[in-house]
Amino acid sequence: MLLYAAALTIASDVISDNIDETGNQVLLLAAVDRRRWFLFGGVCVFKAIILLKRRDGISSEEFAAWWLGRHRPLAMQLPGLRRMVVNLCRDPEAVYDGASELWFDSEADFVAAYATEIGKEVAADSLSMVSRRDRLIVDEHVFHAQPAGAAG
Fold this sequence. Notes:
Blueprint: E1 2-5, E2 12-19, E3 25-33, E4 36-38, E5 44-54, H1 60-75, E6 83-88, E7 98-104, H2 107-115, H3 117-129, E8 130-137
Parallel strand pairs: 1-3
Antiparallel strand pairs: 2-3, 3-4, 4-5, 5-7, 5-8, 6-7
């Protein structure tokens, strides 16, 4: 039996093709709209990627310890934050030392979160440790590869 968990069907893409615990194939569909990901149940999600370059005089190790140990717990308090991912660059000579991915229900929620006292604290904490901070507002497209040899 084929089961569908679908949202709006503007331009649907299969983003997950799984077999559930009862042996039914479940296709999870999502539709892409500008700056928003329509997920299962019609939840609208906004994503920002924030690229950071550490200040001169701060080692990669010190920067990683700050980002994961002090900044991340602070940022996790942003009102309306749905998900946060920190990506640390392996190359200390790269243009950026990493990128954080932040998900909110909407762009308005993202802007409102940074307008709060905790949001201002998060921004100030970040600016105290970086020489460069760039924000990318993205349209996310997720594709899952089939394992080698899997029937598709």
